[in-house]
Amino acid sequence: MEIRNKFWEKYKLEDLTRDEWELLCDKCGFCCSYKEYYSDINILIYTDLACRQLNLENHQCKNYKLRFELEASCENFRDIINSTLHLYPDTCAYKLLSENKKIPYWHPLLTGSYENIVKIVREELRLNLISIDDISEDEKHLHIVKWVEYKK
């Protein structure tokens, strides 16, 4: 594992190693929540519905290495970051670094622990994810948390 000391303070996103990139993730789960894009009205809708692969206890992917094969909607964040970063929460470390800002005080890179991260993220983002398997197709519309105009 190649990790440089305080890399988040010294390097740009594009200069991070794969391991450093992974450590930037605060496990908020936002990437793993279902989103729906309506091209006719250019609106992106966010939900509080989590991908089937997301472990809701620790906000980690159950099948990280196979995620793209198992979930058609799973996107490689590193590939789409330039076009979608503005859509992510203001606490997102990737977004903050791209704007030359500091990561939040509660980020695991600063605290050294993921122990309370799911609780902290729920409080900070007010996003309490539930599994998409726990609701019916007819209930999906009840889980919309945000609409945004989509700009590429």
Automatic annotation (TrEMBL):
Protein's recorded name: YcgN family cysteine cluster protein
Species whose genome carries this gene: Acinetobacter seifertii
